[in-house]
Description:
By secondary structure, the protein is an alpha+beta fold. The chain contains one helix and three strands; from the N terminus they run βαββ. The chain has one helix at residues 19-27; strands at residues 9-15, 31-34, 43-49. It is flat, with a radius of gyration of 13 Å. The model has no long low-confidence stretch (mean pLDDT 78).
Amino acid sequence: MLSNVNMIHLLLKFMLEDQAAVSFYNKQGLKIVRKSDEMGNKEYLMQWGK
């Protein structure tokens, strides 16, 4: 039974050149999921979830 399940999920997308943001979000527990989007843009997609 899934009625007692609480899910928290966060996705962030930002420009690849922003290494300060990568460092900050890694320290907060987010993990890099993808390093560019479907159109080849230079972006990070980071994910955090419980």
